[in-house]
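Predict structure. Input: histidine kinase, 465 residues.
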Amino acid sequence: MTSLLSRFGATSLTARVALGVTFLLTFGGIIVSIAAFAYGREAARTAYDRLLVGAANDIASAITVVDGHPVLELPHSAFELLALAPDDRIGYRIVGPNGQTLTGYDEIALPAGLAGYSDVFFDGAFFGEAARYVVVSRRFAERTWSGTIRVAVGQTLQARNAMAVDITRKALYVLAASGLAMLLLAVLVVRAVFNPLKRIAGGLAERDPHDLTPLDTDVPRETAMMIQALNAFMGRLDRQMNSMRHLISDTAHQLRTPVAALRAQADLFSDEEDPERKDRIVERIQTRSTSLGRLLDQMLSQALVIHRGDSVRREKIDLRDVVLDVFEEGDHAVLRPDIAVVPQLADQPVYVLADTTSLQEAVKNLLSNALKYGRAPVRIGATTENGVASIWVEDVGGGPDPEILSALGTRFNQSGLSRQNSSGLGLAIAHAVARSFEGQLVLDTHGDRTFRAALCFPEIKAEAA
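Output follows.
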């Protein structure tokens, strides 16, 4: 059963539609065939019943009373009507008031309880063969004789059945022709409907593997959602590819100078004989290694947040939890144990739609910058105001240099930042996180007193979240 379903799932849409139309036509054809046969039988019965009534009335009208006795001379017109069915056998019986047979076949049994003068039809047999009969009554009220004479005329069913079959056969011919025409029309319509899909498939097949530009959206409404989904997927893939290319390019650009400097210091150390100078060279190597390690961490962190911004499903997050997670990890105590970090949280939840890991990376970089370049006290908090949710880091100081702020969000702004201890790269990471979740990085400087870096996002109400 499972294999059958899997094979059906692999069939083309055209085959599925054709199979569905064929099933509907077959089911409908069976119903129409039954209805056509029933209609044919009814039409044949009505037509031949009228012939029987006409023949019986002709015979009844030919009965006369002579010398006090009913006399019948069978009219030829009655049998001419019934002769329209040449293969059928004809039988008749004329019954007097006392039930005696005046003429005809005694084998024809009239139904019991005949009353009134209306025509009565019934099914019976004529010498072992199925037949159809009609009984016509005629009332006589003569001075010499009075009473009711009943005329029964019957006919076998060969012509009736042949007529019913003929009507059914002709109806089936029309039905079969109509069904084939509908099936062919359905196939043509389905092929025409699927032409946009074929055009889309052809366009994708002819594309360069590196071409991730959006597809043409001039398509029928039913396929527009698929095109939009494809374009969104290719957009995410294009951003991922660009991020990968930028990461490789930026990494090579950033690491060339520090690695060359380390190599030069190592060469100097191997050639130096003075112990004091060797100690200074080792100190410089250690400083540059630490700086290089931090630079690598920040670049990998930036690649991580850019990747997660496009690939990770957004979820409801309370920014207060992010603040507590960063605070409890205690990285600040390792970087600057002499500076106390004070958390400052709102009383109510501060909900946004984002990714916890990305927000934590951004806040860690902002906190690291504050500890490295600012002065105590350093505060970290989450607040909301006028529908805007913010997670921020604040320190005492003037903030980064103006050239760093002007280069924020552009490529290769890290090249100069490595020489300035990479303060701008941390801001670039925070900027990328804010942009990934429809937010913004707001830098607020009050002279030399305080500097606040805040990630601001649209607030999600607790009920909606």
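The first strand starts at residue 63 and ends at 66.
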